[in-house]
Amino acid sequence: QAVPAGSHVRLNLQTGEREAKLPDSENGRSDTREERRRKRYRGAVDVDANSFTSQELKKALAKMKESEKAERKVRREFPAQEEEVRKKFRPIEQLKEEFEKLNMKMETDYEIMLKLISKFNSSASTLDEKVAALYDLEYYVHQV
Question: What segments bear the compositional bias annotation Basic and acidic residues (predicted)?
């Protein structure tokens, strides 16, 4: 069970159960649902709430835009850093071409998964081949 941020949680050693209690407000009584909704977006998100107000969504979107602008600014200020990264890594297409020249075929996980799915769906595959394809697919899906 998800518990809202700021809740008091304890383990009752007599019963072995976990107990949670919402924090008391300044006046000594627990906040009502409406009071919690008004306090919701102050750095943390209330996981108990079912919806967000338009103001909360606007604030979150503004923060996302600010961080994107800051990232672009860093890229403009430090273009040499980005160039260094480009020198260290090559595009996948270029790597594939180089491997083909060496008579080696490089496949992405996506391409391998497509082959495994087609092998599983093929009526020509035996039961053992289908089981093996499922095991291999499980591995690749777990990576994703």
Answer: 16-35
**Rounded CA gap, 1 and 8, in Å?**
14
Rounded Cα gap, residues 57 and 46, in angstroms? 14
Q: What share of the chain is helix, strand, coil (3-state, %, to 5)?
A: 55, 5, 35
CA pair distance 37, 49, nearest whole angstrom: 7
Q: Region of 34 please: left (phi>0), alpha (psi -120 to 50) or beta.
A: alpha
Beta bridge partners of 18: 11
Q: Kindly report the CA angle at 86 between 85 and 88, in degrees rounded to 5?
A: 65
Are the C-beta atoms of 56 and 14 separated by less than 8 Å? no
pLDDT in tens, 88-136: 888 888 888 888 888 887 788 888 999 999 999 999 999 999 999 999 9
